[in-house]
Write a structure and sequence with these properties.
The chain is α/β, with parallel strands linked by helices. The protein has helices at about 15-25, 60-65, 80-90, 90-95, 105-110, 130-135, 160-165, 190-200, 215-230, 240-250, 260-270, 295, 300-310, 315-325, 330-340, 345-360, 375-385, and strands spanning about 1-5, 5, 30, 35, 45-50, 70-75, 100, 115, 140, 145, 150-160, 180-185, 235-240, 255-260, 275, 280-290, 365. The chain has 17 helices and 17 strands. Helix 8 (about 190-200) crosses helix 9 (about 215-230) and helix 15 runs antiparallel to helix 16 (about 345-360).
């Protein structure tokens, strides 16, 4: 293949992103001199577009040697709204092959033809996924499997026990004594659910399902958040993994709703940081892997299946658990650790699985990134941002 005056062999190890940058990746459809974007299928490389917490950095090299597929990781920012928008009206399907996003959008994406169904027969490690993870809502549409429950966990509150003692309620986020020392994420898929759980369980407000609010319930929750924002309760509404970590690392907040990996990162930096077990329950979620339409167009769907099979093979689960505290829901993690005890402590891998299972044994409300009143959520969240 020739680009400009440069000859680039199809068997080269040039990463797709580097080539796209050279070719000018801003266009909605990647073309150079009228040539369509080329997929390097021979390299068995897939572009993985997912939340930053699913990245294993340099360990992708080891993953590639085991799974036979190279992953080119790009952070999608975690907020499903912009992700869906880039798939529907942007260039995401031209750039990426496999997506990792919070559960709930599968039906919408499938209806629009933006994702393809998985062929479970081509993912033999799926058989070992725990049944309760296979039963997570949103994975199927019209009898076809559109989401693979690759990572599961349940979220709550990150807090400083040296400042606050033990925290066991979302009420700490709304406590006026902590005005300006608390934060929530700038994403209704998490923050609206946390607020709804608190109002339902601790304030006895008439809320049926925190993850799928009616119009009146949504109004109640959002007015509650807007009032607290206007009162100066929140230090900020953080956006993205890096900012969440920085809030804790810089000691700007004493408590914030957020992701458990932030606790792990805070501890790495020598901070006293804990994760609460709230009386109101946890927000359960699955980061589901989806097959983007572009992968089929470029003839790399089989490589994408091999990639996902690799995610469920044990190594990725061990590494993600060690660095993030996130769980790939399969016993393959423990099996891998037992086979590689110098790399991963089998007891630690087992404890993580038991830890997450314990969360789901209690009160859990599921996150839903595409509730029935999705557009109203978007409108209300914009009101919050503007308040």
């Amino acid at each position: 293949m020739t680009v400009g005056n440069r000859s680039i062999p199809l068997s080269s190890n040039i990463q797709r992103r580097a080539l796209l940058k050279f070719m000018g990746a801003g266009a909605a459809a990647m073309t150079v001199g009228g040539l369509p974007r080329v997929a390097f299928a021979q390299d068995k490389s897939v572009a993985f577009w997912a939340s930053a917490t699913l990245d294993i950095g340099e360990k992708w090299q080891e993953f590639a040697s085991q799974a036979g597929v190279t992953a080119e990781f790009t952070d999608n920012g975690n907020d499903v709204g912009p992700v869906v928008a880039r798939l529907a009206a942007g260039n995401a399907n031209d750039l990426f092959d496999v997506g990792g996003l919070q559960g709930g959008a599968e039906k919408e994406l499938a209806r629009q033809g933006l994702i393809l169904p998985w062929d479970i027969a081509k993912i033999p490690n799926y058989e070992g996924v725990w049944q309760w993870a296979k039963d997570i809502p949103y994975l199927q549409h019209e009898g076809k499997q559109y989401g693979i429950p690759t990572v599961v966990n349940a979220d709550s509150i990150i807090y400083r026990p040296d400042k606050l003692g033990k925290v066991d309620s979302y009420g700490v986020i709304f406590d006026p004594k902590l005005k300006g020392r608390v934060a929530m994420e700038d994403a209704w898929i998490n923050s609206a659910v946390f607020a709804a759980m608190y109002l339902k369980e601790s304030e006895n407000q008439p809320i049926k399902e925190p993850g799928n609010l009616s119009e009146s319930e949504l109004g109640l929750v959002m007015e509650f958040l807007i009032k607290h924002k206007k009162d100066g309760q929140f230090r900020t509404f953080w956006n993205g993994w890096e900012q969440g970590v920085q809030l804790v690392a810089d000691e700007e907040v004493d408590a914030m709703t957020g992701w458990e990996p932030i606790v792990y990162e805070g501890r790495k930096r020598g901070l006293q940081v804990d994760y609460a077990a709230p009386v109101e329950g946890y927000e359960g979620w699955g980061n589901n892997t989806v097959l983007l339409k572009g992968a089929g167009d470029r003839g790399v769907a089989d490589a994408a299946h091999e990639f996902v099979n690799g995610l469920l093979a044990g190594f990725y689960g061990c590494e993600l658990g060690k660095t993030r505290g996130y769980l790939v829901p399969t016993d393959a993690n423990v099996a891998y650790a037992k086979a590689h005890p110098t790399e991963y402590a089998p007891d630690d891998v087992q404890k993580l699985g038991d830890h997450v299972k314990a969360k789901f044994a209690g009160k859990v409300y599921w996150q839903n990134c595409r509730p029935d009143n999705f557009q109203l959520y978007e409108e209300w969240w914009q009101k919050l941002r503007n308040a």
